[in-house]
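Deliverable D5.2: sample structural annotation.
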Amino acid sequence: MYPHHSLRDRTRVDELRQRLAAVQAGSARHWGTMTAHEMICHLADSFEAVLGLRPNSSVESWLSRTVVKWIALHTSLPWPHGVPTRPEVNPKEQGTRPGDLESDRTRLLALFDRFLEPEATCVPHPSFGAMSRDEWLLWGYGHMDHHLRQFGA
């Protein structure tokens, strides 16, 4: 288990930036099928999707928007490995294909900054549905942490 953190805490924002900077194209994955570069594109696409800048299909159900969301956002349980990625944010499907690593990392950081703006609004999450700003800040940390852990960062 790992501590439960939010992007409301500036220390956590800085931590994620440092961990992201440590990811290299050859960083070995501990689970899943994405490469480190594909993961960076996936994170950027995910921020685009929740900010309403990229279409994203819903798989929301009563269970996912209540029980699963509560466990993912309000407990310290680690996110499970192997949860299918939505095709719109999957770089092997409809998501952004890796190009130049540093350009893709810069794109991710710009979208991360946009997501962090206090006035940022988000569309419903494809699984969790509508969320409060505090829930989005929990999701943002949890999603990035999950994938950075995937590559040992």
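Annotation notes: The chain has five helices and no strands. The chain has a mean pLDDT of 94.
The annotation will be released with the project's public dataset once the embargo ends.
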